[in-house]
Design a protein that fits this description.
The chain is of the alpha+beta class and 461 residues long. It has a domain of 177 residues: Glutaredoxin (3-Layer(aba) Sandwich). 28% of the residues lie in helices and 30% in strands. The protein has a 5-stranded mixed β-sheet with strand order 12-13-14-15-28, with no helix packed on it. A 5-stranded mixed β-sheet has the order 23-25-24-26-27. The chain is elongated and about 75 Å long.
């Protein structure tokens, strides 16, 4: 563990007891100063010291080996494919290859699409340095906390994909940053702001963990091969929000989350679904449509039913025309005691390939299943009427972590600031409307306008 506050390293044994400290002032060669990152490379530890402008190398037992003075002070460090990669202070590109003598040469340049994105929204751009993590194939992952995007590079430093972080997380974080900049002034906000994401790390199974300081969840877990992402709810430990607020690093090993916060190392057991796919939301239209519409809804909500009757067919027609992708996320309100069960039924039927038909059937029969006691048989009947296995609904709800998937949708909505539904987001921005017809008119106009920035190569669903 790197104790950034006290400038030393701590080695723990298998019981998580501190076995040795090293690198501390007065402990001989290898004293570290203002260290900001640590990378493990086989049997050696590489420490990025911004204060001393160098990389320091230790054995995993704590024995100091060497220093590597750099031409610019390093901020973050990683090793991939036998090469040491670092980010440096006051540099225009993402990452640099570190030579034997400490010389640096560009390795991963900022993708042009993200340069354009930063210029198109300069009010939200902050000069926060990128975070890096090694890829299993010898490449590199780079998280840009200024524009909230994840890029992949091959072992030669060529960009292979660039993905914006999923909505509405990204827009919620950027809006928070906009409000801060407006209240304090851009310069002050840039000076005091911490990156919206705290750290990126690669887990042993190849997944990427993004540590997020948001109230409802502690991070995002991303499958780089598919780009799919899912939010990870906070553990029940009441200390967790304060620990995350001060966290400087995190890593996920199996179902154990290790967090460095302050001068302590914490270990939590967290529930991580091995199936990394996003929540099985109902969707219409091509996945690569130029616009993405996300509708938060509640099957027991009268206003949601009105929106479905008045705008549902038109929204689906816009999706089928290829102008946008329409997706449903569940946000059952606390006062609607049957809504969560209906959402669970929608998720389960969606897994059988009939989510769209079940979505329409649930709104069409709201009076029936809200009056039934219990409502479960109604949901099974609806599934049977669609030619599906009705009893499978009960088995699915008990077996397939439906509660966790529903909680993930709720976390996404709360992160966007929702307190009620229906709520509609186009490309991550809330769309206000006076009536269903007004919403359709606004969306027809908004999706007919040219996209205002060059498209990112890929987007995380």
């Amino acid at each position: 563990m790197l104790d950034e506050g006290n400038d030393h390293l701590v080695r723990f044994d298998s019981t998580l007891s501190a076995a040795r400290t090293f690198g501390r002032s007065g402990q001989g060669p290898g004293e570290i100063e203002f260290a900001q990152d640590l990378a493990l490379d086989g049997d050696r530890l590489i420490v990025a010291e911004t204060g001393n402008g160098r990389l320091s190398i230790f054995g995993t037992s704590g024995v100091f080996r060497a220093t590597l003075p750099m031409s610019q002070p390093p901020r973050h460090v990683a090793t991939t494919g036998g090469t040491v990669i670092a980010t440096v202070t006051l540099a225009g590109d993402y990452a640099y290859r570190v030579g034997p003598g400490g010389t640096i040469s560009p390795h991963a340049e900022t993708p042009p699409a993200l340069r354009r994105l930063a210029r198109s929204d300069s009010a939200t751009y902050l000069p926060a340095g990128p975070f890096i993590a090694p890829a299993p194939d010898g490449g590199l992952y780079v998280l840009d906390p200024s524009v909230l995007a994840l890029s992949s590079f091959d072992r030669n430093g060529e960009v292979t994909s660039t993905r914006l972080l999923p909505e509405p997380f990204r827009s919620s974080l950027l809006e928070k940053r906009r409000r801060r900049a407006k209240a304090w002034g851009a310069r002050a906000a840039a000076f005091v702001d911490t990156p919206a994401t705290k750290r990126i790390s690669a887990s042993p199974d190849g997944r990427l963990l993004l540590l997020f300081p948001l109230p409802e969840h502690w991070g995002l877990l991303i499958d780089p091969s598919s780009g799919s992402a899912r939010p990870l709810p906070l553990p029940t430990d009441p200390r967790m929000p304060d620990i995350l607020y001060a966290a400087t690093d995190a890593s996920l090993v199996g179902e154990r989350l290790f967090v460095t916060s302050g001068s302590q190392l914490y270990a939590f057991r967290v529930a991580v679904d091995n199936a990394l796919a996003p929540s099985p939301t109902v969707g219409w239209g091509p996945a690569d449509a130029p616009h993405r519409l996300v509708v938060f809804s509640d099957y027991q909500c009268a206003a949601c039913a009105l929106l479905e009757r008045g705008a549902g067919p038109e929204l689906r027609a816009l999706a089928e025309s290829g102008r946008m992708r329409v997706e449903l996320r569940h946000f059952p309100l606390a006062g609607h005691r049957r809504a969560a069960g209906a959402a669970a039924a929608s998720i389960c039927v969606g897994r059988q390939g009939a989510g769209q038909a079940m979505h329409e059937a649930l709104f069409r029969t709201t009076v029936g299943w809200t009056a039934a006691a219990p409502s479960g048989p109604w949901f099974e009947h609806l599934a049977d009427s669609l030619g599906l296995d009705g009893p499978e609904l009960s088995r699915c709800s008990e077996r397939d972590n439906v509660a966790g998937l529903l909680a993930a949708d709720l976390a996404i909505g709360r992160a966007a600031g929702l307190i009620g539904v229906p709520a509609v987001f186009l490309d991550g921005r809330l769309v206000t409307f006076r009536s269903p017809a007004d919403l359709v008119r606004r969306l027809e106009r908004m999706t007919s306008e040219p996209v205002s920035m060059h498209p990112i190569a890929e987007r995380v669903p």
